[in-house]
Design brief:
Elements: H1 5-15, H2 20-40, H3 49-62, H4 66-85, H5 112-119, H6 127-142, H7 146-149, E1 157-158, E2 163-167, E3 173-177, H8 180-193, H9 219-232, H10 241-254, H11 259-266, H12 271-292
């Protein structure tokens, strides 16, 4: 283990609320650097910018993808910045470290008709269907990450104000408005259906959406549900809970929402992440233009 790496990771867990999974990934990135330094006969104190450039080349030669290399170098930059700030090193060799440019992958987004079909797919006459209708409507109404959805408690929803409180990455709290249709479905679910999922009130979980055993739904469980409902709704593609989050953001922007508002609703710390959705909207604008403009179909304009 690199000197001071455990101290740094602990500080991220305690001070920044970093998840255990992310901390473990950072630990693997630091281990990769340690392996490289050992092979090259260099220690952390004598590492300079050339050392880190060679590390980047080492990762590429090893076969790591650009995305993996970018993630590792991002971790290394943060680690060295912390070492410098804590005065463990005299200079920060990672200050000017570049990361490989990544291709921009536009996320899948459902059309409004596909959203309508998906929301209508569960059977409203069954308790599972009533739960899933409320869950799908909440996902699309709020843009929640699935990791946030599985942790929502009934007390997190203010039904009078129409607001849900969620804790996102880094345990950052945000308040998201929910439209009336979703609120009504959630109210009906809580009043009439949720108790049917609780065979043993003493052992029941206090989260909003429960499985047949009265325990909270897992991320994998929700992923499987959405896959099943997409089949029922005849929606093709690699659809996941995150697709509803992408659709939420894209449809808001198409409806006239400003980028800063969507950033706040999604809980993005960096506006760059939200700007990705503007590319999706631009693609749709170009498609509409290509369909609608007469010159795109080689049609002659009428003469006066």
């Amino acid at each position: 283990m690199l000197p001071h790496s455990k101290e740094w990771l602990n500080s991220l867990l305690v001070q920044q609320g970093l998840s255990q999974n992310t901390a473990a990934a950072y630990g693997q990135d630091l281990d990769a650097l340690q392996t490289f330094l050992e092979q090259s006969g260099t220690d952390i104190a004598s590492a300079d910018d050339d050392t880190l450039l060679l590390f980047s080349a080492y990762l590429s030669k090893k076969g790591d993808s650009k995305r993996s290399i970018a993630r590792r170098l991002s971790c290394i930059r943060k680690f060295f910045a912390w070492l410098y700030e804590e005065k463990y090193i005299a200079e920060n060799p990672a200050a000017l470290l570049d990361t490989p440019k990544l291709p921009q992958y536009l996320p899948d987004v459902l059309s409004l008709d596909e959203i309508r079909r998906l929301l209508s797919a569960p059977d409203p006459l069954t308790k599972l269907g009533q739960r899933d209708i409320a869950m799908l409507h909440l996902l699309y109404a709020s843009g929640l990450r699935v990791s946030e959805l599985v942790s929502v408690k009934p007390t997190d929803i203010d039904f009078q104000k129409g607001i849900i409180r969620v804790f996102g990455k880094g345990k950052k709290e945000r308040l998201i408005p929910i439209h009336t249709t979703a609120l009504n479905l959630l109210t009906a679910f809580l009043q009439n259906t949720r108790s049917l999922f609780i065979p043993d009130p003493a052992a029941a979980d206090n989260t909003l959406f429960l499985n047949r055993s009265g325990k909270k739904l897992t991320r994998q469980g929700i992923w499987k549900l959405i896959k099943r409902y997409c089949l029922l709704a005849k929606i093709q593609g690699n659809i996941s809970p995150h697709t509803l989050r992408h659709s939420f953001a894209t449809h808001l922007l198409e409806g006239g929402a400003d980028l800063r508002t969507v950033q706040i609703l999604l809980g993005h710390s960096d506006l760059t992440a939200t700007e990705l959705y503007t590319h999706i909207c631009q693609n749709k604008i170009q498609e509409v233009y290509a369909r609608a403009h007469p010159r795109c179909h080689n049609e002659e304009l009428p003469s006066n």
